[in-house]
Design a protein that fits this description.
The complex is a heterodimer of chains A (about 110) and B (about 110). Chain A is about 0% helix and about 55% strand. Chain A is globular and about 40 Å long. The chains are: A mainly beta (about 110), B mainly beta (about 110).
């Protein structure tokens, strides 16, 4: 069965530091892949999506993710964390249906 | 105005009560979804609908039912609520299968 795994339920970074949130998928074919962000008391909103047009995908708010087929990964990065990035991030994807990961809460320390 | 709205936003009910959560969208999308979010578990799909006449069970449909009254409206019902249905419920829409989903603000349901 296809699945999406997020490593680390909580990640803390200092303001200005690199953000790296990990996501791996299990699928024999490249799936559709997404990163969503959820701010407190809000629904999820799309950060970026992989469409197979390019392996490096740029999203909103300075985030990007790189699709690596050899590693079955789609990690989310941002060069410099901002306080406003504090939120929960969900990786999602699949081939026949979309499955969501369990989420990673990002804490940004001043 | 929000593209996907959910009512109510918060609800406290008692075990055994019937409750309905409503979702409306103005995006014109055919596909609508109901998810449940629990801490540490991410989002689990309860039901999804491709159009008014096509409704499908998701991963955790037991204890839930849905109604697609129109393209824009998709309701989730708990026929007899139980405490372990206490969760955050989200409605979402998408234009195409496997495409970007647009989420409502959520309904926080507490079953006592």
């Amino acid at each position: 069965a296809q699945s999406v795994t997020q490593l680390g339920s909580h990640v803390s970074v200092s303001e200005g530091a690199l953000v790296l949130l990990r996501c791996n998928y299990s699928s024999s074919v490249p799936p559709y892949l997404f990163w969503y962000v959820q701010y407190p008391n809000q629904g999820l909103q799309l950060l970026l999506k992989y469409t197979s047009a390019a392996t490096l995908v740029k999203g909103i708010n300075g985030f990007e993710a790189e699709f690596k087929k050899s590693e079955t990964s789609f990690h989310l990065t941002k060069p410099s964390a901002h306080m406003s990035d504090a939120a929960e991030y969900f990786c999602a994807g699949g081939y026949q249906k979309v499955t969501f990961g369990t989420g990673t809460k990002l804490q940004v320390i001043p | 105005d929000a593209d996907v709205t959910q009512t109510p936003r918060n609800r406290i009910t008692k075990t055994g009560k019937r409750i309905m959560l409503e979702c409306s969208q103005t995006k014109g999308h055919d596909r609508m979804y109901w998810y449940r979010q629990d801490p540490g578990l991410g989002l689990q799909l309860i039901y999804y609908s491709f159009d008014v006449k096509d409704i499908n069970k998701g991963e955790i449909s037991d204890g839930y039912s849905v109604s697609r009254q129109a393209q824009a409206k998709f309701s989730l019902s708990l026929e007899s609520a139980i405490p372990n249905q206490t969760a955050l419920y989200f409605c979402a829409t998408s234009d195409l299968w496997l495409e970007t989903q647009y989420f409502g603000p959520g309904t926080r349901l507490t079953v006592l």
